[in-house]
Amino acid sequence: MTKTSTENFFIPGGDAFDADFAAYHVDERFEKVRNFMRDRRFTVGETGIASRVMSHWDQFGLLPKGAKGENGGWRKFTLSEMAWLRVIVRMRAFGLSLQHIALATKKVMLWDKKREAYPLFEYYLAKAGFSGADPYVLFSSSGQAAVATADEIETAKLFRGKSDLLLVSLKAVLKDLGLGTTKRNVLFSVTEGELELLNAIRVEKNSEVKTKTDADGHVTEIESTTTSPTPKASHEINRQAKTGKMYGRVVTQYEDGIPVSVQVTKRKRFRKGGSGHRERPRP
To answer: What pTM value is reported for the model?
Structure first.
């Protein structure tokens, strides 16, 4: 059996996501979309899945909670539930275990009984159908699962580093159900300099970050400064500078002849096209 993790896959949200998510669920402008998503109009026969397979999946917890009626039978399915069944079919085709998919169901298909909906999955499914966003259900080898747009996944990579992921496109799922979708927005190419800048701002503990850009708006140089209240020995600073092939300056603050802080400023230049290298900046 595949070892699974109970931790959620980290997808950075922020205020913009919170506002957009809340607007979808309460704004009157999206009422028709919500009703379309939640209308129970699909029969069990329209799923294209044999009843014995459905029962087997149900025993393992793969199926959405809202699809089961009070008497234990199947209700008609919503678009969200039909889409999730298509996701399951794709996951099985990729060889994912029933246990892995059941865990994904718990993390992605969060059931809101009051709304009779799956708020998170429905939100991203609506974005797949009615916007240029390109959402995916994603799975990791450790058993983590989430749903996010392509640009959210790219941002998450900055915090997670390299990680193997299996992605199922919700636009492709809707197309499989015979529904048209809004054309996907093509993501602009992010250069190494831009990724380094985001890392310097969001991850590294810098007190100041400066950049230079060329006429096309590409990052050509990043200067980042960190200040430490616990100065390191000069040989330790020299070692780190040599190891990291650093170009920059180190300023040590003294009080009564005793070092009380050290400020390290590093510079990194980028060739046109995005590949980075450290060198002495030109005057």
So the answer is: 0.64
